[in-house]
Structures are given as C-alpha cells and as structure tokens.
UniProtKB/TrEMBL annotation:
Organism annotation: Plantactinospora endophytica
Protein name: LacI family transcriptional regulator
PROSITE patterns the record matches: HTH_LACI_2
Keywords in alphabetical order: DNA-binding, Transcription, Transcription regulation
Stretches the record annotates as Disordered: 334-365
Lineage: superkingdom: Bacteria
InterPro entries, A to Z: HTH_LacI, Lambda_DNA-bd_dom_sf, Peripla_BP/Lac1_sug-bd_dom, Peripla_BP_I
Length: 365
C-alpha cells in the first residue's frame, strides 16, 4: 500500500520544516523564492494535494476570489480583459488562491451578483475591473467590509461627488491601474518627433474615466508643444464603424490631421478604414499610409495587421492585484511585493499602483 503523502513527507523531500511547507501553501510571500521552488518541486514530484477543507477550517479562509467576465463587445478589445484574467488566474494560483468567474451585464447587476455570491459561497475577496465615475460597486463592498482590489483607479473625490448626487467612491482602497494618459502622450510625442503637427484624436464620449484620462495625454502633449488641439478630436462609442465615422469626419475638415491617435484598437481599426478609403489599406511592404494611425491596447489584431499601438503590462497588473489582495487578506504589508512592480512614481501610496504602458511602433505610422 502506497504511503500517504503528507506535509511531513513533502518537508523531508524538500529538506525544510513542515512550517515552511505550510507557509508555501498558505503564505508564499513569507518564503524565499529559492525555497518556494524547492518545495513546489517536492509537491509536484510526490503528487501532494492539500486538504482544502481542513485548511479552510484552520485558517477561516476559502482562498477563493471572484472576478467578473465583462460582456462581449467587438471581439477585439475584449481580448484585453481575457489577457488580464489569464494573468490573474496564474498569479492567484501561484499565491495559493483560486479564481471564480461570474457574469453581469452592468454595474447594478454586478452588485446584485455580489449579494448572491456572498450568500452562496465563502469568498475571500473580489477583483473589480473597469472603474468609472461614481462607481457604486466600490462603495457597496466597502460599506459591507468585503475585501476587494480594483484594476482601475477610483475616478472621484468623495467631497466633490456627494453634492452632485453621485455615489461617493472611497478615496483610498487597493487598486492597480495603467497610466493611459502617459501611453497616449508617448504616442503623440512620437508623432511630433516624426514631423506631424496636426494630430487628431478619436476617443470615447466624455464621462468615461479611462477615456477622459487617455484624451488628456493627447491634449496636454499638444499644448506643451505649443500646438492648439481645438477641433482635432472626435468622440464615438467603441467600435469599428464608430471609429471609421469619427475619423472620416476629422479627415473631411478644412485642415485635416496628418495623424490620428485613438483611445482603443477598435476605434483605430475603424480609422484605418477611413484613411485607406482613398488610396487603399494596407500600404505596400515597407510603406506607411499618408495619415498615421495609432491605437491603444496592442491587441492580437493590431499585431497581425501592423497597427502601432500602446501596450498595457497586463500580466504585471494582474500580479500586482493578487499581491495587494494578499496584503489585505494576510494582514501583512509584504514590503517589496507590489512595490517592486511600481514602474511609475505616480502611484498614490501603499496599496495603489500605477503602471507605465509602452508604445509599439509598426507599419501604420
């Protein structure tokens, strides 16, 4: 009869104490990377499986976190959340957590889902995506003392939003975000450096925290360069057809732009259609279109067709979210864990991480 594999068995094989094995399973941040790898190799070789029920009774925690799958949109920018979820699942597993996925068509339905999920499952925490002005989800969870982290900044100041009748968003909670304004500024500065002076912008209608942030990167960069951005931007809902219509409108103006920066790859793909209508798109090998087009999110479609785009560090953002949740749930500030990933000094403080994106230059300009 085969010997039952226990924590003690793993400890002997890895040449560590049983407490160290327990720490690797329950609080991996407390163990050095070299030791963690040795213990994990022993766990894999022996086929050890921790008794989750026993662990939950011992710690009072399920080590289960929930995150929403956003509704399918155009099949392009939806891939951004897919990559984030993939990174989140990997990072959570490495930290000893499991991810539960759920659906909700809008924020109100998502709050209803919180209520149902908390009643049906022993969840440790939530990861929220897509923060917005007056985000009622963060207020709901905070009022009920439910741990959470957001992939996205809180866009409101409670003192400013309350008098306007909007739900006040807690001023400080753990969050990870990508600096969209900086990404668009990188794209705009590069176009300026290559000689463009009339640079247009196609973004989402005002009122989107993410969209407003990305637009500010274009607007402020032109002002800093001594250029007037007036009349060079158009707003449109996210989508190919909408991006094409907005870009056509820009190109039909008395002084059309020689380059267009877009708030998403979906809008940029539409802009490429508008740019390509007179002379054909794509341009020949090694050639660039007359009007340069830049997107945001560096989706697989952008990579396939040669669209210049801003790339978000999604795997890094997901890992930071897990780090911050572990800080909250384990009741310890692990010093460097999330801090080592702070690539932008604009992070607001402990538990709040702002990452810098990068511009990927391709054929589209």
């Amino acid at each position: 009869m085969a010997e039952k594999v226990t924590i003690a068995t793993v400890a002997r094989r890895a040449r560590v104490s049983r407490q160290t094995v327990s720490n690797v399973l329950n609080a991996p941040h407390m163990v050095r990377e070299e030791t963690r790898e040795r213990v994990r190799e022993a766990i894999s070789a022996l086929g050890y499986r921790a008794n989750q029920a026993a662990r939950q009774m011992r710690t009072g925690r399920s080590r289960l976190i929930a995150v929403r799958i956003e509704p399918t949109r155009d099949g392009v920018n939806g891939s951004v959340l897919d990559r984030f979820l993939h990174g989140l699942t990997e990072a959570a597993e490495a930290a000893g957590y499991r991810v539960m996925l759920y659906t909700a068509p809008d924020p109100r339905a998502e709050i209803d889902a919180y209520d149902s999920l908390l009643g049906a499952y022993d969840l440790d925490a939530f990861v929220l995506t897509g923060t917005e002005y007056g985000d009622a989800r963060t207020a709901w969870l905070t009022e009920r003392d439910v741990p959470f982290v957001t992939f996205g900044r809180p866009w409101d100041n409670p003192a400013e939003t309350a008098p306007q009748g909007r739900t006040a968003v807690p001023a400080r909670h753990p969050w990870v975000d990508v600096n969209g304004a900086d990404g668009v500024a990188q794209a705009t500065r590069r176009l300026l450096d290559t000689g463009h002076r009339r640079i247009g912008f196609v973004g989402w209608p005002a009122g989107s925290g993410v969209g407003d942030d990305r637009r500010s990167g274009w607007h402020d960069t032109l002002l800093t360069a001594g250029l007037d951005p007036t009349g060079l931007d158009r707003a449109a809902p996210d989508g190919f057809a909408q991006g094409e219509a907005a870009a056509r409108d820009l190109l039909a103006s008395a002084e059309p732009p020689t380059a267009i920066v877009c708030a998403s790859d979906s809008l940029a793909l539409g802009a490429l259609q508008a740019v390509g209508a007179p002379g054909g798109w794509p341009a020949g090998p090694g050639q660039r279109p007359e009007v340069a087009v830049t997107g945001f999110d560096d989706t697989p479609v952008a990579q396939a067709i040669g669209l210049t785009s801003v790339s978000q560090p999604l795997a890094q953002a997901a890992a930071c979210c897990v780090d911050l949740l572990a800080d909250v749930l384990d009741g310890s500030r692990r010093g460097g864990a999330a801090g080592h990933r702070r690539s932008d000094p604009a992070s607001s403080g402990p538990g709040q991480v702002l990452l810098r994106p990068s511009l990927v230059v391709r054929q589209s300009g």
